[in-house]
Amino acid sequence: MKTLWQDVRYGARVLRKNPGITLVAVVSLALGIGANTALFSVVDAMLLKKLQVREPERLVLMRWVAGEKFEPGSYNGSGSRDESGRMVRTSFPYQTFERVREQRGALSDVFAFGGVSLNVNADGLTDVAAGQAVTGNYYQVLGVPALHGRTLSEEDDKPSAAPAAVISHRYWQLRFGGDPGVVGRQIRLNNVAFTVVGVTPEGFDGTSQVGTSQGVTIPLAHEPQVMGERSGSAGAGVWWLRLMGRLKEGATLEQAQASLEAPFRRSVEEHRELRRAKAPPNRPVPALDPNDFPQLSAASGAQGEMNTRENYERPLHLLLGVVGLVLLIACANVANLLLARAASRQKEIAVRLALGANRRRLIRQLLTESVLLSLAGGAAGVLLAVWIKDGLLAVSEWGRAMTSLEPSLNLRVLGFTAAVSLVTGVLFGFAPAWRATKVDLTPALKDGAKGSGAASRSWLTKGLVVAQVAMSLLLLVGAGLMLRTVVNLKRVEPGFNTTNLLTFRVEPGLIGYKDERLADLYRQVSGRVESVPGVRSVTFSRVPLLAQNISDRTFYLPGAPAGADGRPASAGEVYIHQVRENFFEAMEIPLLVGRSLSARDDERAPRVAVVNETFARRHFGGENPVGRRLSFNPDKPGEVEIIGLVKDAKYSSQRDEIPPTAYLSWAQELRSLSSATFEVRTAADPAAAVPAIREAVREVEADMPLAAVRTQVEVADQTLAMERLFAKLLSFFGLLAQALAAVGLYGVLAWSVAQRTQEIGIRMALGAQAGDVMRMIFRQGLALALAGVALGLGTAYALTKYLESLTRMLYGVKAADPLTFGLTAAFLTLVAAVACYVPARRATKVDPMVALRYE
Description:
Layout: H1 2-17, H2 19-48, E1 59-66, E2 79-81, E3 87-89, E4 91-92, H3 94-102, E5 107-122, E6 125-134, H4 138-142, E7 148-149, E8 164-167, H5 169-176, E9 186-189, E10 192-199, E11 216-219, H6 223-227, E12 241-247, H7 253-278, E13 295-300, H8 307-344, H9 346-354, H10 359-395, H11 398-401, H12 411-437, H13 441-444, H14 459-490, E14 501-506, H15 515-530, E15 535-541, E16 552-555, E17 572-579, H16 583-587, E18 591-594, E19 608-612, H17 613-620, E20 629-630, E21 640-646, E22 661-665, E23 676-682, H18 690-700, E24 707-711, H19 712-718, H20 721-755, H21 757-765, H22 770-799, H23 804-807, H24 818-843, H25 848-852
Parallel strand pairs: 6-11, 8-10, 17-22, 19-21
Antiparallel strand pairs: 1-3, 1-12, 1-13, 2-3, 4-12, 5-6, 5-9, 5-12, 7-10, 8-11, 9-10, 14-23, 14-24, 15-23, 16-17, 18-21, 19-22, 20-21
């Protein structure tokens, strides 16, 4: 420890004596380490962070796995696929919770929770909040106490109990300004009176997907009262509840899965029996092949639900690789600086060795200096990471869609930074330390040793420069491909006019509107908004365009052959839009043949539909579809008449192919429109009309807030969130890497000129012209740059076949696109030429007389 402290003090003195080199090294490392720290803080928040509950590692999340043929019936939830292609899902029917809780096996207790959408009316103000319905033991099993008041209990989870609600700390701050007096206050949830009994502690946002925050929690027993006809709790219900449990002491996930498989199978059979009992005689629930029966799968619940995390895992790992390359380039820069400095310290090292110093001891001394540099760079990088991580959220959709995602520089992130700093110090310091101590004493002790220029001609120095250029070209190629992808997607013709179009969502079903009252509400809102100055037209639809929402149905064509069960075989799937009668005119989707929907197409009129070109082409061979018929019920063949054909329009995103689409009259589909998205066409900037539109809707129904108020351009841009994020980040890090590589190239050439001053003076004294000297230095630097460009192009071409996470995001451009490769190589070569020019020009300024007296 004594000698280590001596090394630290001596290393600090050496760094202070060379402020220029020290500053450049610290800034380079700060950029590399800061970028890695910032991105790791996002990775930590999205992929590594555990629930802030008691002993999260003992929590178990239940999932089920089944083949494509298994149809659960009504299902509300998301899923993923395992390695064999089978669907992995996390939602269960209420029957599963009952059976699993009766036979817990390796679990000490089991709880259930499911998402609900809530219209919250408090103090005369309304908003729509993400909520959840939970079993009474939810907070007790998790071990989450209340910050204020109390949490829900088993007594609250009874239909006869007084309705009680718990709000999250985040919602408490945003909606109630952190007022402790909210406990005991009455609020209305979907027009049902609830009493707020508690506030959860800061940091606990529920057990759902990462980035989501469940603002209001109610007992599961009151979910039917709040959700009404959309409730999933009663009868056969829907697969909508998430199930979690806590392992008993010493129990394992495998034991939990094995002990719960039997009650799970029994619950599935019970659920199917209930479905059979409720199914109409002409639509029986088909028998289930034993091979298709779902299997229970137990996973760690320490992080809550994992579907969102799994979706972001590969892109985040790819971005970590990107910032890792930036750090390697920074390390190469610093390594070259230390190699150059080692050349100037040859006499010092030689004297030390001549006086008996051990080579290992000198290497340790030099490595100590490197580690001090890296730790200083790490400290500066932490400060830089605070800015970069906020920038990551600002330029991405994470900060908007994931309201509770808050990357922080916690102990795990700081530990990562410290580890990266130490490894970095050893990584860039070892080679210079090894080279510096490998000294031939006799020549090194001579006065002329310094002018040898060995450092500048070192293959290691040149190799590091080549590697820097190659790695920066890799990042710039990736940035170029993503920029071209974004440009191509923005140029996609959506099939309707997106300019001067405002969209917003309303959910009147949450406050009890249905049937004729719901229809009257939509008519009144449409009429009132149409009267707002500057509004040209108003329409609405159940599913907004280009918002990554999908509504599809199985449909049947008359005369279809009978299937194995004797019923007509389906013609496939068709995407559905339930729209107001003026939808095509307002959205400016051209009508090609037939007529559009009209106000006469209501619930009393024969059912009608308008289809798009893709539907007509795929199912009628491109013939005129007007007058043809289809149905969505095999027992009512041909009940829907096709009355018109419209031009194709994109449905869910610019990337997806246009699907076969049927537009249905909203009045004939009213049961599906408990919520709707209004599209408002304005004469000027739609954002300016938002206050007046809000007031117009408030005049019709004060308890119905507007949600997701955005322009159609903003809606469409959000479908490109991942592509835009990668384009921005790859461009930023690519340019940063290119700047570091250019600085590295400049530094090597500048040092080379300084080391070869005597040689250059001799050349000029013997008749060399300034142009000859400039070409010599310029050619030396450009040769390194071109070697790096060639290596980078070859590596980029080879990697395009393996970087699936990147190539899957490309659109309208191939991974090995010659134009992108060529422009990137040309740009990097131009930057390298500029970096070579400055030291080459400086070499021409050498005075031969001064150079001959050098040293």
